[in-house]
Amino acid sequence: CYVRLFINNDEGIASPLYESCYEFENAPMMGEAALKMKKRFASKGLSMENRIHEPPDHLAVELEYLFFLLQDGCVGPDDNSAALFAAKTMLPWVMVFNQRLKIATEDCRFYFFASEILVWLLRLISNKEALD
After folding, report:
1. Predicted structure pTM score
2. Longest CA pairwise span in the chain (Å)
């Protein structure tokens, strides 16, 4: 199921794990979203090139960056705020990812349910500043 949904499928991958793939219809990997993530890493003095062999806009990498922002206490009105990163960067494409999984996972609902939890979590983080 994982391979069919995220790696390789004769009909095409239903839900790519890369933000760049959601920039426009049939968008390729390593688009503008990947470049923005590289800049975000650099602005925080972070580097992942030697340890992680995925593009910087991979879902797991973006989640790790969000964790870093939350752990580091990055709040406020700038683009490096955890709430703004969750709301403006992650939530829009993860919601599309979630809806694609809803359609593509008739026989394997685990990934859809996991993405539902992720959408809920991103919404919660997005509203963090309103809760403070």
Report:
1. 0.86
2. 48
